[in-house]
Structures are given as structure tokens and as C-alpha cells.
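Extended Data, panel c. Modelled sequence:
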Amino acid sequence: YTWWTERMARICALVDFVRLDHFRGFEAFWQVPASEETAIHGSWVEGPGVDLFDHLQRQLGSLPLVAENLGVITQGVTDLMDRYQFPGMAILQFAFDSNADNEFLPHNYAENLVAYTGTHDNDTVVGWWSNTASTQDEATIARAKDYCRAYLEVAYDHDVHWRFIRALSASKARVAIYPMQDILGCDATARMNTPGSTHGNWMWRMSEGAFHADIRKGLRHLTELFGRLPQ
């Protein structure tokens, strides 16, 4: 595990938390023979799991890792996260497609959690609200928006991104993350990445002066109001 140890040591020297995307693969991964033309024919293979993370702990001490546990997650993945107390993720944009039991609704959050309005693979909140790039049918979209409007008490469409930020700020999730596009209230043209596409991804840049005094004041107000200012 030399590569992993050196890689983790370096990144931990640069940032406070490290998110391990596709955390599922550390418990088990889908292995496909190189001779296959597609990924259909393969098999699940046990991942490095405990052996790797025990080694990293011995070499580096406490591991400030966040597990990207979205999608279909097995009990083995959950057990691996619990063993090391790695927080999982919740995406608020995914919360409004069912009912009050949805794990991504803030009232269902655990404390050991990293909650996002959306990630680099989602549309912006305003873009999601406007459905400018949605692939869902109109009835599904309408139900999600009605639930979202009621849950977040969205009175005015123009401030829906602030309702998202406020809900996460008020939750008991230990960490709340808001992409800059959502803080600024950008529409779908500011989307960072569209999975499965190669056009226009990772091109967005914040223009000079966009993070102006009124936005800074609003963000600080919510951060202070819910006790999330740095100590």
C-alpha cells in the first residue's frame, strides 16, 4: 500500500477532509476480464477494505475521510464506514422524490454526515428548480417541486437556493457544503459537470465581484445563526 500511503499523506497535508468517491469499491468491486468488450460479464471481487484502512491508520494516524456512499450500498459498506466512523453523504436535491422517510431530508440526518445542496455532478439548485436540464417526466418533476416547496417553505422562486442552504445549516449534520454556484444562485448554465457527457464540463468560473457584500452577509448570517462559524 505504498502508493495509497504516500497519496493519502500528501492530500491530508493540503486539505482538512478527503472524500473517497465510489467508496463501494473498497468493500467490493466489479471485475471485468480485459478481453470483454463491455462491463456486462464480470464478477464481484472483495476489496482491500479493513486491511487497507488499518494500514493507513498505523502509518498516518486518524483518517479524515468522507465516504461517498450514494447509490446501492451493501451492509458490508455500512459496516466498513461504521468501523472507522467515516461520515457518509446526503444530497438535498435527491430528497424530494418520495416521502418523509427519504434519508436525504434534513430531519433524517445523522450527526456524522456531510450534507450537500448538490455536488459537482448535479445541476445547480436554481437549475434543478427550473428543470432546464431534467430528464424526468413532468408529473414526477411537479411532485418533487410541490414537496420541496412545502418542506422548505419556498415562498419565492428566486430565493430557493437560500432555502436549501438554510435547511442544511439548520440540520445536525456535522458538515454542510454549498457549491459556490448555489451560494450565488446561478442557473443551469453554471453547472459544473454532466455525467456521461463531454461538452462544456468543468468550464465554469466565478466572475470577479460575483461574491458581493450582500451574499457574504447572508451566508455569514446563516452560518452564525446555526452555530457553524469556526471556533
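The two ends are 36 Å apart (CA to CA). This feature is highlighted in the accompanying rendering.
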